[in-house]
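TA notes, week 10

Several of you asked for a full example with nothing omitted. So below is the full record: structure tokens for the whole chain, then the designed sequence directly under it. When grading your own attempts, check the secondary structure regions first.
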């Protein structure tokens, strides 16, 4: 590595919790390599706080009220060509705030974990040399992630890499790393029996983890719990995220049930997954990757159109997840899987083909190898960027 320790900036957004979690995982990866100068910036929140809150509200409301509209917008813009006028307009949001942040923090490399690509055009206008990388946090490629000014893409699957090459991204700029997760999701050598939540569970019953998302927006939670608890075969860990209303409703209806365990927002997600036999959840990219890392069979309930439905369909096509639209079919699917050891073995084998629990380390190591090794030690790589002199953006 160069004598100068690199400064890293990670741009994320607070729509849901996944982009932030991915950013923190990458930050932890850098810190494990002795790199402490890592700054995280929620660009939309910093640049336009009111607009950010409004768009977050619309995004979260769309899960309940207008999922088809959100999905339509997502799919209409999904395959736009790189550099399309619409994308340039969207990417310009926050450019002024980002310019000030770049001048203030003087990063040596910038990482996007959310597709708000204001920086490439800013760099072009200022004639700067600043490496940019994108960490795509879904199992689906949308045009908003793609830009000619991005030096490196880190993606979840080989299928995504092939699609990006077909859409004009140079092959050498795409690395299949997986989606970055915190170190506790390595899940190798750990046992649910020794986890804290495991001690509270009945070892004679299968455990179903129900996760409604960080904001608790997944629909149908009460009906799901009612169906699972009715037969007496399962115990349920219900995680409501930050949705206090959902928490209160579930507590009122099921709080006294001996097989029902209720939680709000939890940080020990790996512990909960290790203690469970399967998970019912909304198909956000981070949660799916966490379940894969923990080898936890997935049931995806009523995925909304857009990246989450595309995530769900992809994992279903790989024999890893099952999509359910109503409590009865969900319950039947869980029964069929958990009672069939051969099916479980197939799902587990399929998961091994996609799980990449060390993605954060892969990303950090690749960044350091590409940009921050002494010239004499660098592999003969792809010349996709270089460290820059001190940045002064006028």
């Amino acid at each position: 590595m160069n004598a100068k320790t690199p400064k890293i900036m990670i741009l994320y957004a607070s729509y849901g919790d996944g982009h932030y979690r991915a950013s923190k995982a990458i930050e932890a990866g850098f810190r494990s390599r002795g790199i402490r100068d890592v700054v995280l910036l929620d660009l939309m929140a910093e640049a336009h706080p009111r607009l950010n809150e409004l768009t977050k509200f619309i995004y979260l409301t769309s899960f309940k009220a207008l999922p088809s509209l959100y999905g339509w917008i997502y799919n209409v813009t999904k395959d736009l060509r790189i550099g399309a006028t619409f994308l340039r307009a969207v990417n310009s949001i926050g450019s002024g705030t980002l310019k000030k942040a770049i001048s203030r923090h003087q990063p040596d490399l910038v990482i996007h974990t959310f597709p708000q690509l204001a920086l490439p055009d800013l760099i072009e206008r200022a004639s700067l040399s600043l490496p940019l990388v994108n960490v795509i946090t879904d199992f689906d490629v949308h045009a908003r992630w793609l830009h000619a000014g991005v030096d490196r893409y880190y993606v979840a699957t080989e299928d995504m890499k092939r699609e990006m090459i077909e859409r004009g991204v140079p092959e050498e700029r795409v690395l299949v790393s997986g989606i970055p997760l915190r170190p506790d999701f390595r899940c190798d050598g750990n046992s649910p029996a020794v986890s804290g939540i495991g001690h509270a569970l009945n070892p004679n019953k299968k455990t179903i983890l129900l996760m409604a998302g960080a904001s608790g927006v997944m629909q149908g939670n009460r009906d799901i719990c009612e169906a699972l608890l009715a037969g007496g075969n399962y115990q349920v860990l219900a995680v409501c995220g930050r949705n206090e209303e959902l928490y209160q409703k579930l507590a009122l209806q099921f709080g006294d049930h001996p097989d029902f365990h209720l939680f709000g927002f939890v940080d020990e997600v790996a512990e909960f997954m290790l203690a469970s036999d399967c998970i019912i959840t909304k198909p956000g990219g981070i949660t799916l990757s966490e379940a894969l890392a923990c080898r936890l069979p997935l049931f995806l309930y009523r995925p909304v159109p857009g990246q989450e439905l595309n995530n769900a369909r992809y994992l279903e096509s790989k024999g890893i997840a099952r999509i359910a639209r109503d409590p009865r079919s969900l319950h039947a699917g869980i029964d069929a899987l958990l009672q069939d050891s051969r099916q479980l073995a197939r799902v587990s084998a399929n998961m091994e083909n996609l799980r990449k629990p060390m993605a954060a380390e892969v990303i950090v190591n690749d960044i350091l190898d590409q940009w921050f090794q002494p010239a004499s030690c660098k592999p003969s790589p792809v010349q996709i960027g270089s460290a820059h002199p001190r940045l002064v953006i006028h």
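The first strand starts at residue 8 and ends at 12. Use that as a sanity check on your answer.
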